[in-house]
Amino acid sequence: MNNSGIGKLIVIEGGDGLGKSTQYSLIEDMLTKKGYEVSTYDFPHKAGNPLSDLIGDFLNGKHGQVEPEFLSLAFAADRYISKDTLNGSLKSGAIVLCDRYILSNIAFQTSKLTDIDRSEKLVDLIQWLEYEVYKLPKPDVEIIITAPDSHYIDGVHLERSGSKDRSYSLDSSDIHEKDENLQVKVNSFFSSVENKKNRMFIEAYDEYNNRKSIQNIYNEITPFIKKILEE
Prior knowledge:
The protein has helices at 20-33, 50-59, 68-80, 83-91, 102-110, 116-133, 150-153, 175-178, 180-192, 214-230, and strands at 8-14, 38-42, 95-99, 141-146, 199-203. It is α/β, with parallel strands linked by helices. It has one domain (8-230): P-loop containing nucleotide triphosphate hydrolases (Rossmann fold, 3-Layer(aba) Sandwich), CATH 3.40.50. The longest helix has 18 residues, at 116-133. Mean pLDDT is 91; it is low at 161-170.
């Protein structure tokens, strides 16, 4: 299929250990088979350049506690590095698929704060920097996966089979993943973000508190993506 016009930016968001990377790969495969040109990004980069190496070292616990306001700048700059190639793909008509994007920066950094005023200022800072200063494109589709708090309290999110690239981590989990309290707050953030036309919320568990299969979640996601792409 020859993509026509401007492409679409599809983002998968949510807490850790919910199968985002798996769905990311399945969606990429589905779109490729349908003939779309697909460009993929996994944010944040955790190795490969001085900034991503720094982020990988932070997630490995090498830099101790960093204030969320300053840490958010590193995650934003990491995305900015990919701006030209990302925009180039969109202009060529490609589908750009991202595992995490700007909403994750907001979710993880504001979830570390208890002061509401400080949190609101941080949201404004991130949105101003990433959208207005860096002029990163806004998503056309956001898939947000959430779970019950027990998924994190019971440590289920740590029972991962491995993501696309864990080479940055000396352990199977980074410091964000190991922080149960942070994960619960991040999950709560994603569960409560504003519902918009281009956002789809997926619960990783059914009404009986059983984990949904990879295929069931994929079957929920794909009609929504196809509908947006056809508009």
